[in-house]
Design goal:
Length: 144
Amino acid sequence: MNTLTAQRPTGAFVGASWAALFVGAVTYVTGLWNAQMALNEKGYYFTVLAFGLFAAVSLQKTVRDRLEAIPVTGIYYGLCWVALGLALLLLTVGLWNATLTGSEKGYYAMAFLLALFGAVAVQKNIRDIALFERLNPASSEADA
């Protein structure tokens, strides 16, 4: 028996989640913009960020779907894990072989991880708010 309960995330957590996503992504992209590397390298790192963000959100959605008894095929669930692992591996290999200083490598790694965390938290908040509003329609109307 699967009973759904919902709590609305606090405004502070919602704000912190969006801030983590934007600070991580903007910091990462700003670093790429100002980097002294070839355009194809910048494209590689930007693509890894976009791929990682998509993979993290997709994985969070499939995990949440399974928790809410929404059908998710095993192959898609597995592909989400593989995609997130590949994004992390591609960033790791790229930074390991890059001719950047250690502090620059750490900068990109931390901005990347912050953006991934933010994307997962934002997706979680969106789902929590939607579930809360679906289960508590009177509360949603009072907020409007």
